Amino acid sequence: MPNTEQGKLLDFFLGNRAEMQGFLMKRLRSAEDTDDILQEIYLRIEKFTGEEDIMNSRAFVYRIANNLAIDRMRQRTRHRNHHSDGEDTCAEIAAPLPPADQIIYGRSRLKFLQEALGKLSEKQRTCFILHRCDKMTYKEVGQKVGLSESMAKKHVIKALAHCRKYMRKIEG
Which residues of 50-88 are buried (b: 16+ CB within 10 A; e: fewer)? Predict the structure, then answer.
């Protein structure tokens, strides 16, 4: 069971993964490195003990991302300097596609997420999709569906909690 600080960090990370992916892609210019770092961020949040209070989840998680990106760029530079004889390495010519098992796993998770979304009320589902997929603010979502900003936010939070609970139940 995650502690409160860890839960906040996990909520932020999962809710802003696409934004973080864009941030890392701009810095690293590599989908593979970006995915590796996103995975590492998740693992570090999972290992977080919560012994220190985090005042700003966004700043904390982005600091982790930035530090890992810098480490990766340094690692690349060292690798290039070490392999500067001009020969292509396997890693440089390999296709940037994930392994088939990861694709299948991702598709099955997407199917379960679609099932979870299907069990939401129409308002919750609409608010969630507008906010998470269409990147609308709570205010914009509220205006679009005829709710106050705070009600739109509540619908998104309830939808997110439902989806997480559903995914945990499915994944065992």
Answer: eeeebeebeebbbebbeebbeebeeeeeeeeeeeeeeee
Closest to 124 in 3D by CA, of 93, 95, 100, 151: 151
Helix (H, G, I), strand (E, B) or coil at 35: helix
pLDDT recorded at residue 161: 93
pTM of the shown model: 0.47
The domains of the chain, with CATH numbers, are 1-97 (1.10.1740), 99-172 (1.10.10.10)
Using CA atoms, how far apart are residues 127 and 152, in angstroms rounded to an integer? Answer: 6
Choice among 34-43, 67-76, 105-114, 151-160 with the minimum mean pLDDT: 105-114
